[in-house]
């Protein structure tokens, strides 16, 4: 019986998770001068979720021991923090270089955004 009470909450949460970005797009059209701001927001939010859900895996593969941990910031911001701290693994350095090739100083900018929001 108690599972019948939880099922609607799970369904509502899943619906909001899946449909939230689309409703956010329609609510923001014409309100932001940046081109395609919702694309940036979606990718930033996906980066937050990936950092949280795969924190143990990302810590093990992208950082050295005692590095800045994943799970509380975007992947780029944590890569930037570990780059400053000098605790990126070789694979983490390659990912950081790839992101910085696409957007110069991407990881440092993300790191500075968490320092001064």
3D architecture notes:
The chain has helices spanning 2-28, 37-53, 55-62, 75-85, 90-102, 106-115. 74% of the residues lie in helices and 0% in strands. The protein is mainly α. Helix 4 crosses helix 5 (90-102). The chain is globular and about 50 Å long. The longest helix is centred in the first third of the chain and has 27 residues, at 2-28. The chain has six helices and no strands.
Task: Describe this protein with a few key phrases.
117 residues; mainly alpha; 6 helices
A few lines on this structure:
The protein is mainly α and 117 residues long. The protein has helices at residues 2-28, 37-53, 55-62, 75-85, 90-102, 106-115. Helix 4 packs across helix 5.
Based on CA inertia axes, which overall geometry fits?
globular
Rounded Rg: 17 Å
Proportion of residues in β-strands: under 5%
Order of helices and strands: HHHHHH
Distance between the termini: 46 Å
- Strands, total number: 0
Number of helical segments?
A: 6
Structural class: mainly alpha
Mean pLDDT comes to 80
- Give the biggest sheet: none
The percent range for helix content is over 70%
Low-pLDDT parts are none
SSE topology sketch:
Blueprint: H1 2-28, H2 37-53, H3 55-62, H4 75-85, H5 90-102, H6 106-115
């Amino acid at each position: 019986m108690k599972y019948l009470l939880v099922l609607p909450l799970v369904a509502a949460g899943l619906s909001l998770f899946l449909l939230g970005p689309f409703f956010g797009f329609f609510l923001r059209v014409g309100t932001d001068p940046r081109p395609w701001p919702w694309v940036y927001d979606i990718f930033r939010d996906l980066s937050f979720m990936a950092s949280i859900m795969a924190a143990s895996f990302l810590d093990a593969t992208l950082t050295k021991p005692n590095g800045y941990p994943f799970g509380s910031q975007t992947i780029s911001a944590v890569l930037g923090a570990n780059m400053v701290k000098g605790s990126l693994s070789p694979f983490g350095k390659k990912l950081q270089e790839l992101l910085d090739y696409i957007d110069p100083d991407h990881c440092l900018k993300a790191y500075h955004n968490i320092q001064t929001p």
